[in-house]
Specification:
Blueprint: H1 15-18, H2 25-28, H3 35-47
């Protein structure tokens, strides 16, 4: 059995808007990770059997 968890840092999605969190430190941070890059790096890491992947930035 394999268990995989993707735990990205702040990612530029609708999460902060929907949660009314755009006025928080993380929500206002203009340097959030690109969601497509986060997903690609996570998938590639999974397929290569990596335990960790580099940050998206």
């Amino acid at each position: 059995m394999t268990v995989t968890a993707l735990l990205p840092g702040p990612t530029e999605t609708e999460f902060f808007d929907r949660g009314d969190l755009t006025d928080t430190k993380l929500g206002a941070d203009p340097n959030k990770d690109d969601p497509a890059l986060v997903a690609r790096q996570g998938f590639e890491g999974l397929m290569k059997g990596r335990r960790r992947c580099s940050r998206a930035r």
